[in-house]
Amino acid sequence: MLDPSSSSELPAIPGKRYFTIGEVSDLCGVKPHVLRYWEQEFPTLKPLKRRGNRRYYQRQDVILIRQIRSLLYEHGFTIGGARQRLDGDDSKEDVNQSQQIIRQLRVELEDVLIILKR
Fold this sequence. Notes:
Distance between the termini: 41 Å
Order of helices and strands: HHEEHHH
Strand order of the largest sheet: 1-2
Largest sheet: 2 strands, antiparallel
Number of helices: 5
Oligomer: single chain
Structural class: mainly alpha
């Protein structure tokens, strides 16, 4: 399916407000049909739907999808186990999400620093 070592190589999340399903697919390393399936299985994953039922994901959705991906593909959780982990483990989820946001900000700040040094 997916190479577990590829999670550390996921691209940085751009500073956009909304992402299409194709962009999220590329950012998270999962196919669009998997994202649509996960929407059914994880009640907290609810992208906005606009014209023609097109999905628009926000930054917190992308972070949640990366957490789900990590639980399923790297830690070997089942869908039910991952759902339980995300639902019942709010404090660890907050810490995990905060760590991901901090890592993302650091990458973005390093990019800005490189631009400023030019």
